[in-house]
Amino acid sequence: MTKERYYKQLEENFPKFIKDLDRLISIPSYYTEDNSGYPFGEPIQKALEEMLKICKELGFKTYIDPEGYYGYAEMGEGEKLLGVLGHLDVVPPGDLGKWNNDPFKPIIKDGKYYGRGSQDDKGPTLAAIYALKTLLDSGFELKYRVRFIFGTDEENLWRDMPKYVEKEEMPSIGFTPDSKFPLIYSEKGLLQCKLIGKNESGMKFKGGDAFNSVPSSIVVEDDKELAKILKELNYEFKEHDGKIEIIGKSVHAQVAEEGINAINRYLHALEKLGRSSKAGKFVEENLIGYDFAEPIFGNIEDEHSGKLKFNLGKIEFNDDEEILCIDMRIPVTYNVDDIVDMLTKKAAQYGLAYSKYDFLKSIYVPLDSELVTTLMSAYQEVTGDMVSTPIASGGATYARAINNCVAFGCVIPGSPKTEHQPNEYIIIDDMKKAMKIYMTAFEKFNK
User: Fold this and answer.
1) Domain count, the chain
2) By residue range, what is the domain housing residue 332?
3) Residue 194 forms beta bridges with which residues?
4) Would I find Transmembrane helix among this entry's keywords (predicted)?
């Protein structure tokens, strides 16, 4: 009967959840260099303030970092502190022509909630908050503290979480609702870097939205010879307004091999035309025809986390330099210095110099740990899924930010991951199921 009461309360609270999610999604909270004085731009600050306002309305105690790097909302009493970490920044929407609706004017259609941040990570974060709120509305007595920690720079350089770690109390256990169920126990090392060389080609262009997204397109000046070679290579493109748009398929860099890299295709076409460049030669010889940059690294993989992943996310040819922006996901048992050494030596063969941009070390939480077994039992109890097992991932989540933390939901097995893509959405029924899983997890931690 207790579960029935909780689930009935969830249905009563769900319309309010949707309204509050609308408030968050409507804020275009991607990184902006502006003169606002906030570390990552005014839109992200607005999203942080709006989330804390929502939490305060729900009865949580709230706090915002005076510098604007993070905030948190807390409920409960006692020494034990469970941290739930989510981020309020999003990736840019990219080509708006590929969206069926405004990415920041959320809509529900065919049982799906559309909007940038609906799956990554505003929707899941708010779902976890409403899961706890629903328990409390149903008479649940919380015997420990739950702190929802809100980050603001997850999609870029993670300059937010070190500030939290420096200033605040650390949870003893935690999870982040920023991936998929049943649970992510291992995350690859994340290396972002630039390969830079002198521009001797005379070409100038740029493309791509983020290191960690496979570029869905690149737009360049219209060119009959380029159009001809693109046709010969069977590469999709469009011609409009005096421009050529080379078409790719955007996916998250952790599964780069499942996408189609428009920048790679453009550089390949230029090489075939004889318009050679350092970057073009590098791409043609090491990335075209290879899913995992095997000419650079050979076969890099382990049993815990799979293969090394390599993504060329952004490019710029300016008056002076060719700049390639690279995102790599490194298996947990490999040393990053060895990977850097291989890339540096290979890049030098093309006149490109390696420059580190960011690095996040890998994590591994034992499968028999209390954290993993508790969360898995919550997932299994709600779903009845006794087949799915904990996953090793190439994604980078806030599970890396604190000790004894894993990624837990909120995408259900078999449902699509739409993060970073046009028409990002989350399935309404999946969101409700995720809330039930989080409610059960909060119950199980109540010892």
Assistant:
1) 2
2) 189-360
3) 325, 355
4) no
137 and 212 together in one domain: no
Q: Hey, what amino acid is at 283?
A: V
Enter the pTM of the model.
0.78
Residue 31, pLDDT score = 96
**pLDDT for 355 beyond 70:** yes
Please give the Cα distance from 155 to 114 (Å, whole number): 19
pLDDT number for residue 92: 94
In angstroms, the CA 130 to CA 123 distance is: 10
| Active site amino acids | 89, 154
Alpha carbon distance 351, 346 (integer Å): 9
Looking at the structure, do residues 216 and 261 belong to the same domain, yes or no?
A: yes
Which amino acid is located at 318 in the chain? N
Q: What is the DSSP string of 173-220?
A: EEEE-SEESS-EEEE-EEEEEEEEEE--S---EEE-S-TTB---EEEE
Residues 330 and 370 in one domain: no
Return the DSSP state at 274: T
**Per-residue pLDDT band at 76 (split at 50, 70, 90):** very high
> What confidence category does residue 2 fall into, taking pLDDT thresholds of 50, 70 and 90?
confident
Residues 33 and 120 in one domain: yes
The pLDDT, as a whole number, for residue 1 is 54
